[in-house]
Amino acid sequence: MNSLALCSLCLFLIAQSPWLTNATVFGDGSDLIGQICNENPEKKIECTNILRADPTVLEEAEIFLKGLAITTDVPAIANCALYYERTIEDFTNSLNALKRQDPQTANYLADIAGDGPSSC
Asked: Which residues does UniProt assign to the signal peptide (predicted)?
């Protein structure tokens, strides 16, 4: 697997926090899993079923990413592994702010959380 595909996988896994499965983006009502899985129409059903059925995806992704960072010499992967947990925490905090009906804080926290995948 080349580093671009690996980085894409990492970004995909980062975005799959179980706390965000009901979050909406761009106000169109689509949930995050649906939007991610729509990127690959041929595998949409399989992608959606896997991500919705397994609540351990987040933990497994972190374990995989950290192991990969140890066994490869790819700076982008090491960076993703380093900021993975913090990124998930930031997204969780953003979702909690939405639940408290504080959209300004939610937007700010989501923006901060986006820095992790952006630098990946």
From this structure: 1-23
Q: How many domains does the chain have?
A: 1
Instruction: State pLDDT tens for residues 23-35.
Output: 433 333 356 667 7
Report yes or no: 65 and 13 within 8 Å, Cβ to Cβ: yes
Query: What are the residues whose beta carbons fall under 8 Å from the beta carbon of 64, sequence distance 6 or more?
Result: 13
Structure tokens at 109: 């926290």
Tens of pLDDT, residue by residue over 26-69, are 333 356 667 767 777 888 888 777 777 776 776 777 788 788 88
Could you list the residue range(s) of the whole structural domain that residue 39 is in? 3-118
Residue given tokens 């959606």 in the structure block: 48
